[in-house]
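[job 0412] stage=complex_fold ligand=S-adenosylmethionine status=START
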Amino acid sequence: MAKEAMSQEEKNMNDEHKRLASVVKNVHANLRKKLRANNGDYETVWKQHCKDQSALCQYAQCMQKLATDHWTKNSHTRIDWCREVILEYFNGSGLEKALEKDAKRQRHKLQKEEQQIVSDSCCVQNEGADPTQRLRVQLMQDRPDACPQRDADVRDDTLVQLPLEGKVRLLDVGSCYNPFCQFDEFLPIAIDISPANELVYQCDFLSLEITEPLHLAPDAGDTFLRKLSSPIERLPHGLFHVVVFSLLLEYLPAPQQRWLCCVKAHQLLQCHGLLLIVTPDSHSQHRNAPMMRSWRTAIESMGFHRWRYVKHEHLHCMAFRKLHQRPSVPCGVSPDMMYIPQDFSDKCLDDELNESSHKEVIQDECEDRDDFFQTSALELPCFIPDDGSGTVV
Ligand SMILES: C[S@@+](CC[C@H](N)C(=O)[O-])C[C@H]1O[C@@H](n2cnc3c(N)ncnc32)[C@H](O)[C@@H]1O
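[job 0412] stage=complex_fold status=DONE, emitting structure tokens
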């Protein structure tokens, strides 16, 4: 009897889980549908979406319930992964090792440049050297960073900027219910277009204004953050040690919006701060590897370096480090690179297929169309299939 009652309870939980997941998934799908109906005008679609208070509130309640009542069976969640990575980086040896690697790379680069200068100088001494080459050699010799000792400056500067003691200032974007408030090591600022509780500030990250950095005492950042009030419309440049996008980017219907979020994260982070991205994907690591490579190239072009990547059963988890120096942007990088398979899933029969730069991906999704619809039910982690075999991540 007790066993039967338990299984009925489990069945009810399972039904509720499916209902909540479908509310959440429908909001994402409707946004994408509206974007297509508005010919890609994501600003108009987003403005309308932010005004739909009843849909936003329903989403927030369902999402909070899913995360706090249903996704608790697994002892290791996406939030735990974020915490471990942050602690390893700031309190363990992560940052130190990353800086050592940076210095090594920099030394190697400078050595190569010096060798180049020597070989160019030899050519210039030769009467046949053209004026452009002469100018280049002169410029290289005058460059202040063409000097290996400057590695040391880069390192010291970093250690001054980062608080290796004290709380890690963490901005949780699209937080919903502020899951990071349980950890003492952090000073979490949780923001959302639709807060599920009073621990979260109302803020649309896409329209957040980034203001001048605070030029105050080191602890002024904490004081500033403790005095924030809802709604948040602006935040200073370089204030955070960590920015978290946990299940945020796939909510946004346009790749341009996902790109903009990453650019803003870069502005809000201190040098060597971390951007953590958790995004759902129930396929094998191999299946969407081109997408992850594309995200990596796009995000690194903004001045990040990927520091950690893990594929869990239903999630990709990534940590990007904000670099001291911006790299040169490789050719062909554009916001389109922040695509997700769902961007294309309803366009398969369109003529656009022939024109898109992501042709293989679209083709792949078309071929597996039935498969895509079947597994899209697993778009969010720990969806429990009818046979009850789902795992929680
Ligand atoms: C799938 S939920 C993820 C909740 C939480 N981060 C987690 O991992 O459980 C996505 C959240 O992002 C929020 N969101 C989407 N776009 C946003 C934006 N531009 N600014 C702030 N929050 C946003 C949504 O309201 C929603 O609560």
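Residues 60, 63, 67, 173-176, 191-194, 203-206, 246-248, 251-252 surround S-adenosylmethionine (CB under 6 Å).
[job 0412] exit 0
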